[in-house]
WhiB family transcriptional regulator (Streptacidiphilus alkalitolerans), 106 residues
Amino acid sequence: MTTKQLDPAHVPYLVGHGQQPRLPATVPCQSDGVDPDMFFPESDADAQAQALALCFGCTFQERCLRYALDNPQLTEWGIWGGTTAPRRQQLRKDFDLVTQPNRKAA
């Protein structure tokens, strides 16, 4: 299986409309020493728990989750905005987001 990476090019509105698509170093997932693979655990509950713990308290968590909900084709796997793929799928269903793909960010 190909390893997924946190690609800042896929999250342009996390830093604002019209700005260079990159995440600030202050975001926990971009900190030195944090392996991006941590956010794409195969089936390791401990690794998943560590990734989720980094998300909680992150100032970009809400925007990251919004991106993940708006772009299911790009966020099919991994931890995004403090959620797992099954949780995001449930959120899309609960809030009827399945019928509204690629909504514009507010």
